[in-house]
Specification:
It contains 10 helices and 8 strands. The radius of gyration is 16 Å and the shape is globular. About 40% of the residues lie in helices and about 15% in strands. With about 240 residues, it is an alpha/beta fold. It has one domain: TIM Barrel (Alpha-Beta Barrel). It has an 8-stranded parallel beta barrel, surrounded by 6 helices. The structure holds 1,3-dihydroxyacetonephosphate. The site of 1,3-dihydroxyacetonephosphate (13P) has 14 residues, from strand 8.
Length: about 240
Protein backbone atom coordinates (compact mmCIF):
# COMPACT_ATOMS: atom_id res chain seq x y z
CA UNK A 1 0.00 0.00 0.00
CA UNK A 2 1.23 3.47 -0.87
CA UNK A 3 2.26 5.64 2.03
CA UNK A 4 -0.22 8.38 2.92
CA UNK A 5 0.80 11.87 1.89
CA UNK A 6 0.11 14.52 4.47
CA UNK A 7 0.59 18.26 4.83
CA UNK A 8 0.01 19.57 8.35
CA UNK A 9 0.03 23.19 9.44
CA UNK A 10 1.54 24.06 12.79
CA UNK A 11 0.06 27.41 13.65
CA UNK A 12 2.30 27.71 16.75
CA UNK A 13 1.17 30.60 19.01
CA UNK A 14 -0.75 32.53 16.38
CA UNK A 15 -4.40 33.24 15.75
CA UNK A 16 -7.57 34.85 17.00
CA UNK A 17 -11.17 33.77 16.71
CA UNK A 18 -11.66 36.10 13.74
CA UNK A 19 -8.45 35.21 11.89
CA UNK A 20 -8.98 31.46 12.50
CA UNK A 21 -12.46 31.65 10.99
CA UNK A 22 -11.19 33.47 7.90
CA UNK A 23 -8.25 31.08 7.43
CA UNK A 24 -10.31 27.90 7.87
CA UNK A 25 -13.05 29.19 5.56
CA UNK A 26 -10.48 29.95 2.87
CA UNK A 27 -8.83 26.52 3.24
CA UNK A 28 -12.12 24.64 3.13
CA UNK A 29 -13.07 26.33 -0.12
CA UNK A 30 -10.33 24.38 -1.88
CA UNK A 31 -9.87 21.23 0.17
CA UNK A 32 -9.67 18.31 -0.23
CA UNK A 33 -6.80 18.07 -2.67
CA UNK A 34 -6.88 14.65 -4.32
CA UNK A 35 -4.35 12.24 -2.88
CA UNK A 36 -3.16 14.43 0.00
CA UNK A 37 -4.38 14.45 3.60
CA UNK A 38 -4.30 17.82 5.32
CA UNK A 39 -4.45 18.97 8.93
CA UNK A 40 -4.07 22.07 11.07
CA UNK A 41 -2.53 21.95 14.54
CA UNK A 42 -4.04 24.91 16.37
CA UNK A 43 -3.47 26.46 19.82
CA UNK A 44 -5.38 24.77 22.66
CA UNK A 45 -7.92 27.58 23.22
CA UNK A 46 -9.05 27.37 19.59
CA UNK A 47 -9.41 23.59 19.33
CA UNK A 48 -13.14 23.76 20.04
CA UNK A 49 -13.69 26.54 17.52
CA UNK A 50 -11.66 24.80 14.82
CA UNK A 51 -13.15 21.40 15.68
CA UNK A 52 -16.68 22.69 15.13
CA UNK A 53 -15.75 24.27 11.81
CA UNK A 54 -13.89 21.19 10.58
CA UNK A 55 -16.42 18.52 11.58
CA UNK A 56 -17.42 16.57 8.50
CA UNK A 57 -14.73 18.23 6.34
CA UNK A 58 -11.55 16.84 4.81
CA UNK A 59 -9.27 19.04 6.93
CA UNK A 60 -8.20 17.23 10.10
CA UNK A 61 -7.66 18.78 13.51
CA UNK A 62 -4.46 18.51 15.51
CA UNK A 63 -2.87 19.85 18.68
CA UNK A 64 0.69 21.09 19.20
CA UNK A 65 1.45 19.56 22.58
CA UNK A 66 -0.01 17.29 25.26
CA UNK A 67 0.62 16.25 28.84
CA UNK A 68 2.28 12.89 29.41
CA UNK A 69 -0.06 12.38 32.39
CA UNK A 70 -3.59 10.97 32.10
CA UNK A 71 -5.13 13.37 34.63
CA UNK A 72 -4.47 14.92 38.01
CA UNK A 73 -2.92 17.89 39.76
CA UNK A 74 -0.93 19.27 36.81
CA UNK A 75 -1.91 22.92 36.65
CA UNK A 76 -1.93 24.30 33.14
CA UNK A 77 -1.59 20.95 31.40
CA UNK A 78 -3.92 19.34 28.84
CA UNK A 79 -4.46 15.57 28.63
CA UNK A 80 -4.62 13.38 25.54
CA UNK A 81 -8.19 12.34 26.43
CA UNK A 82 -9.23 16.00 26.36
CA UNK A 83 -7.69 16.45 22.92
CA UNK A 84 -9.39 13.31 21.63
CA UNK A 85 -12.72 14.49 22.99
CA UNK A 86 -12.31 17.78 21.08
CA UNK A 87 -11.87 15.88 17.85
CA UNK A 88 -8.09 15.90 17.38
CA UNK A 89 -6.70 13.28 15.06
CA UNK A 90 -3.06 14.39 15.35
CA UNK A 91 -0.84 15.69 18.15
CA UNK A 92 2.66 17.07 17.55
CA UNK A 93 5.14 15.72 20.10
CA UNK A 94 8.78 16.59 20.57
CA UNK A 95 8.78 19.77 18.51
CA UNK A 96 12.20 21.39 18.78
CA UNK A 97 10.63 24.49 20.34
CA UNK A 98 9.29 22.28 23.16
CA UNK A 99 12.64 20.54 23.49
CA UNK A 100 14.70 23.73 23.44
CA UNK A 101 12.51 26.35 25.12
CA UNK A 102 10.67 24.11 27.60
CA UNK A 103 13.32 21.53 28.37
CA UNK A 104 11.49 18.47 27.10
CA UNK A 105 13.84 15.50 26.97
CA UNK A 106 13.61 12.19 25.16
CA UNK A 107 11.93 10.39 28.09
CA UNK A 108 9.19 13.00 28.40
CA UNK A 109 8.66 13.03 24.64
CA UNK A 110 8.36 9.23 24.71
CA UNK A 111 5.74 9.43 27.47
CA UNK A 112 3.76 12.01 25.48
CA UNK A 113 4.01 9.88 22.34
CA UNK A 114 2.58 6.90 24.23
CA UNK A 115 -0.19 9.02 25.81
CA UNK A 116 -1.35 10.22 22.38
CA UNK A 117 -1.54 6.68 21.02
CA UNK A 118 -3.30 5.39 24.11
CA UNK A 119 -6.03 8.00 23.52
CA UNK A 120 -6.51 6.76 19.95
CA UNK A 121 -4.83 9.67 18.15
CA UNK A 122 -1.79 9.80 15.86
CA UNK A 123 1.38 11.41 17.18
CA UNK A 124 3.49 13.48 14.81
CA UNK A 125 6.95 12.93 16.28
CA UNK A 126 9.45 15.68 15.47
CA UNK A 127 13.16 14.96 15.29
CA UNK A 128 15.96 17.21 14.13
CA UNK A 129 19.49 18.38 14.70
CA UNK A 130 20.82 21.83 15.52
CA UNK A 131 23.27 23.58 13.22
CA UNK A 132 26.14 22.80 15.62
CA UNK A 133 25.18 19.12 15.63
CA UNK A 134 25.02 19.03 11.82
CA UNK A 135 28.40 20.75 11.51
CA UNK A 136 29.86 18.26 13.97
CA UNK A 137 28.61 15.40 11.79
CA UNK A 138 26.13 14.26 14.43
CA UNK A 139 22.87 14.53 12.47
CA UNK A 140 22.20 10.80 12.24
CA UNK A 141 23.23 10.18 15.84
CA UNK A 142 20.85 12.89 17.08
CA UNK A 143 17.78 12.01 15.02
CA UNK A 144 18.45 8.31 15.58
CA UNK A 145 18.53 8.83 19.34
CA UNK A 146 15.36 10.95 19.30
CA UNK A 147 13.56 8.30 17.26
CA UNK A 148 14.77 5.35 19.31
CA UNK A 149 13.58 6.97 22.52
CA UNK A 150 9.92 6.57 21.56
CA UNK A 151 10.09 2.96 20.31
CA UNK A 152 8.23 4.02 17.17
CA UNK A 153 5.83 1.35 15.89
CA UNK A 154 3.24 3.59 14.27
CA UNK A 155 2.52 7.27 13.84
CA UNK A 156 3.79 10.10 11.68
CA UNK A 157 7.43 11.13 11.78
CA UNK A 158 8.62 14.66 10.96
CA UNK A 159 12.21 15.59 10.22
CA UNK A 160 12.64 19.21 11.22
CA UNK A 161 16.23 20.43 11.20
CA UNK A 162 16.35 23.08 13.92
CA UNK A 163 18.46 25.41 11.77
CA UNK A 164 15.74 25.45 9.11
CA UNK A 165 12.81 26.32 11.36
CA UNK A 166 11.56 29.88 10.96
CA UNK A 167 14.87 30.89 9.40
CA UNK A 168 13.91 30.99 5.73
CA UNK A 169 16.78 28.58 5.19
CA UNK A 170 15.17 25.28 4.22
CA UNK A 171 17.11 22.06 3.94
CA UNK A 172 17.81 21.31 0.29
CA UNK A 173 15.77 18.50 -1.20
CA UNK A 174 18.92 16.35 -1.15
CA UNK A 175 19.68 17.13 2.49
CA UNK A 176 16.11 16.24 3.45
CA UNK A 177 16.19 13.02 1.42
CA UNK A 178 19.45 11.93 3.03
CA UNK A 179 18.01 12.12 6.54
CA UNK A 180 14.60 10.77 5.50
CA UNK A 181 16.26 7.75 3.97
CA UNK A 182 18.16 7.15 7.22
CA UNK A 183 14.90 7.44 9.20
CA UNK A 184 12.97 5.28 6.72
CA UNK A 185 15.18 2.31 7.54
CA UNK A 186 14.23 2.57 11.20
CA UNK A 187 10.43 2.74 11.03
CA UNK A 188 7.68 0.48 9.60
CA UNK A 189 7.46 0.60 5.80
CA UNK A 190 4.10 2.39 5.66
CA UNK A 191 5.24 5.30 7.87
CA UNK A 192 4.54 8.80 6.56
CA UNK A 193 7.66 10.94 7.01
CA UNK A 194 7.21 14.70 6.75
CA UNK A 195 9.80 17.40 6.24
CA UNK A 196 9.47 20.67 8.17
CA UNK A 197 11.53 23.84 8.21
CA UNK A 198 10.91 26.91 6.01
CA UNK A 199 8.68 25.05 3.56
CA UNK A 200 7.16 27.60 1.17
CA UNK A 201 5.16 27.33 -2.07
CA UNK A 202 8.41 27.99 -3.97
CA UNK A 203 10.40 25.07 -2.50
CA UNK A 204 7.70 22.53 -1.57
CA UNK A 205 7.43 20.64 -4.86
CA UNK A 206 11.17 19.90 -5.07
CA UNK A 207 11.34 18.67 -1.48
CA UNK A 208 8.15 16.59 -1.76
CA UNK A 209 9.43 14.99 -4.97
CA UNK A 210 12.13 13.17 -2.99
CA UNK A 211 11.43 9.43 -2.69
CA UNK A 212 11.35 9.33 1.11
CA UNK A 213 9.53 12.63 1.72
CA UNK A 214 5.77 12.11 2.09
CA UNK A 215 4.67 15.67 2.82
CA UNK A 216 5.38 18.55 5.16
CA UNK A 217 4.91 20.11 8.57
CA UNK A 218 4.42 23.77 7.86
CA UNK A 219 4.88 26.68 10.27
CA UNK A 220 4.75 30.26 9.00
CA UNK A 221 3.34 29.45 5.57
CA UNK A 222 0.39 27.61 7.14
CA UNK A 223 -0.98 30.94 8.38
CA UNK A 224 -1.54 32.20 4.82
CA UNK A 225 -4.37 30.33 3.10
CA UNK A 226 -3.02 30.53 -0.43
CA UNK A 227 0.48 29.49 0.61
CA UNK A 228 -0.76 26.52 2.64
CA UNK A 229 -3.07 25.41 -0.19
CA UNK A 230 -0.26 25.69 -2.72
CA UNK A 231 1.94 23.55 -0.46
CA UNK A 232 -0.83 20.93 -0.10
CA UNK A 233 -1.16 20.85 -3.90
CA UNK A 234 2.61 20.46 -4.24
CA UNK A 235 2.34 17.18 -2.30
CA UNK A 236 0.24 15.52 -5.00
CA UNK A 237 2.08 12.58 -6.47
P1 LIG B 1 8.51 27.17 9.63
O1 LIG B 1 7.74 26.55 8.48
O2 LIG B 1 7.93 28.48 10.06
O3 LIG B 1 9.97 27.18 9.40
O4 LIG B 1 8.25 26.18 10.89
C1 LIG B 1 8.46 24.82 10.74
C2 LIG B 1 7.95 24.14 11.95
O5 LIG B 1 8.49 24.26 13.02
C3 LIG B 1 6.74 23.31 11.82
O6 LIG B 1 6.49 22.55 12.96
Amino acid sequence: MARARLVAGNWKMHGSRASNRALLDALLKELPVQGVESAVCVPFPYLAQAGERLTGTALHLGAQNVSEHAQGAYTGEVSAAMLAELGCRYVIVGHSERRQLYGEGDAQVAAKFAAVQKAGMTPILCVGETLAEREAGKTEAVVGRQLEAVRFESGVLAYEPVWAIGTGRNASAEQAQEVHSFLRQRVPAQTTILYGGSVKPQNAAAIFAMPDVDGGLIGGASLVAKDFLDIVKAART
